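Researcher: Please predict.
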Amino acid sequence: MGEYVILVVALAAFFVFILIVSFFKRYKRCPSDRILVVYGKVGKGGDAESRSAKCIHGGAAFIWPVIQDYAFLDLTPFSIEINLTKALSKQNIRVDVPSRFTVGISTEEGVMTNAAERLLGLSITDISNLAKDIIFGQLRLVVATMDIEEINSNRDKFLAAVSSNVEAELKKIGLKLINVNVTDINDESGYIDALGKEAAAKAINDAKKSVAEKNRDGSIGEAQAIREQRIEVAKANAIAVEGENAAMIVMANSNADRREKEAEAERLAVAAEKVTQAKALEEAYAAEKEAETARAFRDKATQTANVVIPAEIDKQRVEIAAEALAEQTRRHAKGEADAIFMKMEAEAKGIFEILSKQAEGYHQLMKAAGDDSRSAVMLMIADKLPELVRTQVEAIKNLKIDKITVWDNMGGGKDGKPATANFLSGMLGAIPPFEELFKMAGLELPDYLKGKTIAEIAKTDDVDK
């Protein structure tokens, strides 16, 4: 079963691979020098009619298998030689019009479809022959509508008419006229040659006439030039004499003006020299005044630098030292305050911990006593009993009694006890009694700690019952 599944998967993968390869093979790109023609089922045209082909230039298309196929049209232009002979002109004169036409398949929208419908599958020779027949017919038609003089002299009009007629017909089969070149035009009657000879003779006669006229004009011009030369020379001489006289007068006036201006300049120079000397003295005095003022400012600045500035420096130094000392004092005080605060905070934390632990211990003690405060206090006192006994012992521990001498006649005192017994009772009475201590705490000692006998304890219990 597993091998069958693997085989099915492998076949499916193989078919998918074949489909992908086929897909990429059916995707066709159109080169720039060709037209991609897709034919078959290619959709509908603008008039809701089925199109025969779809033409693509400079793009790409996917060719659906079975329902579509494709082919290319070459856009390479080709040249057609047209040797039109004995074409009848408008004047019924037969002419020869040898020419060469450059034609190629058009890339204009719509015209490409004509090319796909009429030229697809044809060779360049077949297309050339087809275009040649169309060009022959249109060229004869254009020649028949024009005179020989017009054809020969107005080549631009002739070529425009040929291009217009030929291109309109070539578009019908999908071609485009690229260039027209008419090499020469001849006629069998020699009319064009006669026109050429007439034009040449006219040109020669016009040239001879022009040469003669130019020679005549040259002679007349030469005589006129000589006359004008003599007149101009005489006029120039007169003007020259007049000019010399005027120049001499101008020179004399100029010398007089020069001497006058020299005297005036001398006077102005002397005055200017004196004025300059006076200004120099004035400027010297002003400079001395400025120098004295500058010296006074300099002395003042020297005194300021020697006295005021050191005093200012000392003042600033004292202020800076005082500020530094004050800052040091503030920092010491802040440090001591921080230390005291931290110490007190630590002590407070320690006391808080001690009290927290004591409270927790008291809470545990209360739980152990069954939440009975009296029992709890009894437990606390029982826990402290050794310490209380130790305290009582310490009270008489340090008493130094080197020697006690007792004289007792054993006769007894007022209470019937001998003096020795009273003495010992007094000493024991000086020790703080447990019972009084317990009463001060609001407690009651057990009877066996009060010194009662068993009979007294039993009697007390019976009374309580």
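Model: The first helix runs from residue 2 to 26.
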